[in-house]
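Renewal narrative, Specific Aim 1. Our central claim is that a sequence can be written position by position from structural information alone. The example that follows is taken directly from our test logs and has not been curated for this report. It begins with the structure tokens describing the chain, in the order in which they were read.
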């Protein structure tokens, strides 16, 4: 029995909770108190020195400087701070895309305005009453062009056809003032005159070139706005409860453990953030397609579609068409009279045509091709840099915001203590988080807001794909096209050829059971410290028993 006190003493020592790095004296909580106060919380009830941590629900349950209330406040704070990081990163992308839109929009609107102004300045002296009495026809044309560019549901080809028809009707009457020409006669005249090309090849040529240029310009400008809007909406998606726990453990648990100076392990941070932003990473495929599509259309705008020349010379093409009509006036009139009959002689007498001035005014188009080239070059650089935004975001947040340690650091915060971090880094996207050791992610329940934004990216990419080949598709039509499994056959091969049916955003989500994490994860320190303490107690008890039986 003389061994009983010794064995009892061993049991008492073994059952005492471990102190980690601390000595026999409780460490001061001054650093945590300072941090807690700096975050705007009251220091009332905050420990002056470490206390036992059995009450903790997120952080490891060793000695701690955090009460339950502090842990809850830190968790809420970490949530708001991480969401703020997301919004700040998103605002940077939004600013870039909005600036690109603003630059191109300003250039394009200026190009159209200069063409319209050149027409108003030159046509009165060139055509006299042919212009002054038909000014509204020209104003309506430019108004329709602007409305189309700004997104109105206008058929551009029909708008151009309507312009040439109205112009022909009015000019024909002005060039034949001695006749009384009724609306019915004008209808007949238009049918007969069109086959004789009264304006030459200008209407057909301008329709082809202007339509392609406007479709490309409108889709290009809209692409930037859609991209910016997607980033804005996705940046506002709230964090899950599991993610909030993981972010708290990453950012504030080391402070509670008295390790304020220890940085989080880089791979540990990556797993936390990749788990939290799993749905956001699924935007990557369609986001890259959008960026690539914008680059392709940018090349069209500055290249084969020649937007600067086509839009900047609209007034010159109209002047060319009017000159063609004037030169062929007699033959066109004779053919119309032959097909529609001779109209009645007007009792008002002639005017207009005799009074018009035929002074030659040199029409010029000031080229801004160099400005467009610089705009496109700048846009392509920014678009290329943004292609990997969604999958590069975790690394960016960990290095620049969370301030994680270097990848080689083996004395970093690993979620439990200061040391190395052993688990491998997860892949990107929802499906790859099935075994994430830090965040419990239900891969069978994708975020619906983000799925909707993935669809918006598909729709816009489809629109740009059509613009690339000169086809016009409005958003409603694009949405109908996008309701299937792909994003439309009209997407250019060099942009969308790699999609097929393997796009992560279009396949059915896999269903897996979420395994219980026993080694490392959100379960806290108690799940791993209690079994080891229990084994230690058994071992000591066994040794003591041996001595007692001797």
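The sequence written for that structure reads:
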């Amino acid at each position: 029995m003389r061994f009983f006190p010794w064995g009892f003493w061993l049991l008492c020592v073994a059952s005492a909770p471990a102190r980690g790095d601390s000595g026999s004296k409780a460490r001061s909580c001054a650093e945590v108190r300072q941090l807690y106060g700096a975050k705007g919380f009251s220091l009332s009830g905050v420990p002056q020195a470490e206390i036992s941590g059995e009450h903790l629900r997120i952080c490891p349950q060793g000695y701690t400087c955090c009460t339950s209330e502090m842990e809850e406040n830190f968790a809420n704070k970490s949530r708001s701070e991480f969401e703020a990081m997301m919004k700040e990163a998103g605002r940077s992308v939004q600013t870039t895309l909005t600036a690109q839109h603003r630059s191109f929009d300003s250039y394009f609107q200026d190009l159209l305005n200069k063409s319209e102004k050149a027409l108003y300045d030159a046509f009165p002296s060139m055509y006299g009453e042919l212009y002054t009495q038909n000014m509204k026809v020209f104003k309506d044309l430019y108004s329709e062009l602007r409305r189309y560019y700004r997104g109105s549901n206008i058929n551009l080809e029909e708008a151009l056809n309507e312009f040439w028809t109205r112009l022909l009707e009015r000019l024909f009457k002005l060039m034949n003032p001695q006749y009384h020409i009724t609306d019915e006669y004008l209808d007949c005249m238009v049918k007969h005159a069109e086959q004789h090309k009264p304006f030459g090849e200008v209407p057909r040529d301008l329709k082809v070139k202007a339509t392609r240029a406007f479709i490309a310009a409108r889709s290009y400008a809209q692409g930037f706005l859609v991209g910016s809007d997607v980033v804005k909406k996705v940046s506002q998606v709230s964090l899950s409860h599991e993610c909030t726990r993981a972010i708290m453990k990453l950012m504030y648990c080391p402070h509670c453990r008295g390790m304020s100076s220890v940085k989080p392990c880089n791979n540990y941070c990556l797993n936390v953030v990749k788990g939290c932003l799993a749905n956001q990473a699924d935007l990557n495929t369609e986001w890259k397609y959008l960026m690539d599509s914008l680059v392709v259309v940018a090349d069209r705008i500055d290249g084969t579609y020649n937007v600067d020349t086509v839009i900047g010379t609209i007034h010159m093409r109209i002047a060319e068409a009017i000159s063609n009509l004037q030169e062929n006036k007699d033959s066109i009139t004779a053919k119309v009279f032959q097909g529609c009959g001779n109209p009645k002689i007007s009792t008002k007498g002639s005017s207009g045509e005799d009074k018009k001035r035929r002074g030659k005014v040199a029409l010029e188009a000031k080229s801004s091709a160099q400005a467009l080239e610089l705009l496109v070059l700048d846009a392509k650089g920014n678009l290329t840099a943004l292609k990997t935004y969604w999958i590069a975001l975790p690394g960016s947040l960990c290095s620049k915001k969370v301030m994680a340690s270097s990848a080689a650091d083996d004395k970093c915060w690993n979620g439990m203590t200061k040391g190395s971090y052993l688990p491998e880094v997860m892949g990107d996207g929802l499906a790859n988080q099935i075994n994430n050791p830090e965040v419990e992610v239900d891969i069978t329940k994708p975020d619906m807001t983000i799925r909707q934004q993935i669809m918006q990216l598909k729709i816009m990419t489809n629109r740009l794909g059509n613009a690339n080949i000169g086809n016009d598709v409005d958003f409603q039509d694009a949405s109908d096209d996008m309701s299937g499994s792909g994003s439309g056959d009209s997407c250019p091969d060099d942009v969308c050829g790699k999609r097929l049916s393997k796009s992560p955003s279009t396949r059915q989500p896999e269903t897996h059971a979420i395994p219980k994490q026993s080694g490392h994860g959100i379960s806290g320190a108690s799940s791993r410290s209690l079994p080891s303490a229990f084994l230690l107690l058994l071992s000591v008890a066994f040794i003591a028993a041996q001595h007692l039986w001797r």
